[in-house]
Design a protein that fits this description.
The chain contains 9 helices and 8 strands. It has 383 residues and is α+β, with helices and mostly antiparallel strands. It has 2 domains: 27-98 and 277-374, no CATH class; 123-261, no CATH class. It is elongated, with a radius of gyration of 39 Å.
Length: 383
């Protein structure tokens, strides 16, 4: 026997009657499905008018309305939180959870600058050396490497040489005055040792400051080597005055320019972009009444659209001595406009409650409160 296609005025929801079964285990959803069906049918004209829909049609529209609400809210949350979720484990479901802003992304960006400034980052630095000769300024880099292929480009970041340690030039400023620490240490039996041991009896901070002053003097007053690199030919300035070993730090261009070596893209188990942020369908039982009202209205628009599609199969139908025009196109147009309006309203509300908008509202409130307090006269106390 063919199933009646006209709404009979009642329904009884059971698990498995929705296309996707997204909310069949949600008690709030299952208890609301029949109420939604009855409400939509009445809004479409039942029982005055025939509604050419079955209970499964209403259930499908109800399920789609909930999932659409979930998608709109989750899309907004992803946009609002992606900066702080990038690099986090994808197995951690954040649906219905508060995401606390962190400095992780800022630290990550600073590492990229750190790579260029040679103060950190994710790109490994390598160290090489070459023996320079007095009077010779140009050297062939290709001959220096055993771990870099001839076709692999490198970028030299720093050229330096190892000077004598500051500690070797540490001195006792009072050593020749007769009042220096040498006179003191002789009383402890250390008089036969090098004067360098004299600093052991001086405050440690003074020793550190003196060593730092020596090293700073070397870096400012004694010019370190600068360099140019062209066609793998290293040219150093100034011209070496003696034979010595020259050291340099470098990076491999293939590693520096490869975005897949960073901590955020080396694993498929971390959030990398919009597509794998761990937001799931929202549970209907956790959606408040404001959200449920949006769902009901959007579901009604869906049922109106579906009914319009059904009635549009035939533009007119014959009746005795005449024919009548169906309102399928009208229903579809109304449904499309209603859906667009509902989505626009929801997105506007979400933007008004974004993290940025709330921070701006807090700022405005604080400024208003401060302005108001400035107008309050100070109390006068008479003792």
């Amino acid at each position: 026997m063919a199933q009646e296609v006209i709404w009979q005025g009642s329904s009884s929801f059971a698990s498995g009657q929705t296309p996707w079964g997204l909310y069949d285990a949600d008690n709030e959803f299952t208890s609301s499905a029949d109420k939604f069906s009855d409400w939509c049918a009445r809004r479409l004209g039942h029982p005055i008018m025939a509604v050419e829909l079955q209970s499964g049609s209403f259930y499908a529209c109800f399920e789609e309305a909930v999932s659409e609400y979930s998608a709109q809210v989750n899309q907004f949350n992803i946009k609002d939180n992606l900066l702080h979720l990038t690099g986090q484990a994808t197995g951690s479901n954040v649906t219905h959870k508060r995401v606390t802003p962190t400095m992780g992304r800022s630290v990550f960006l600073s590492k990229q600058y750190g790579t260029e400034a040679a103060v950190g980052g994710d790109v490994p630095y390598y160290t090489g050396s070459l023996s320079i000769n007095s009077g010779s300024q140009t050297y062939d880099i290709d001959k220096l490497f055993t771990d870099v292929s001839a076709s692999e480009a490198i970028e030299v970041k720093r050229v330096f040489y190892e000077g004598s340690p500051a500690m070797q030039r540490f001195f006792d400023p009072y050593a020749t005055t007769g009042y220096g620490t040498i006179n003191l240490v002789e009383g402890f039996g250390f008089g036969s040792y090098s004067p360098a041991v004299s600093f052991t009896l001086m405050p440690l901070f003074e020793d550190l400051l003196r060593v730092q002053a020596i090293e700073l003097n070397d870096s400012i007053r004694k010019s370190a080597y600068s360099f140019t690199l062209q066609n793998n030919k290293l040219r150093i300035f100034p011209q070496p005055a003696e034979d010595r070993t020259l050291w340099f730090d470098y990076v491999k261009v293939s590693e520096r320019d490869n975005p897949l070596i960073t901590q955020y893209s080396g694993s498929a188990d971390v959030v990398s972009d919009f597509s794998n942020v761990p937001y799931d369908n929202m549970e209907y039982q956790f959606i408040n009444d404001v959200g449920r009202q949006w769902i009901r209205k959007y579901g009604l628009a869906l049922t109106k659209e579906l009914l319009g599609i059904i009635r549009s199969k035939y533009g007119t139908i014959p009746i005795p001595n005449s024919e009548t025009t169906l309102d399928g196109d009208t229903l579809r147009a109304e449904a499309s406009a209603e859906k667009e309006q509902l989505v626009s309203q929801l997105r506007e509300i979400l933007e008004q409650t974004s993290r940025k908008a709330l921070l701006e509202a807090d700022k405005d409130e604080a400024e208003f409160l401060q302005e108001k307090l400035n107008k309050v006269p100070y109390p006068i106390y008479i003792g």
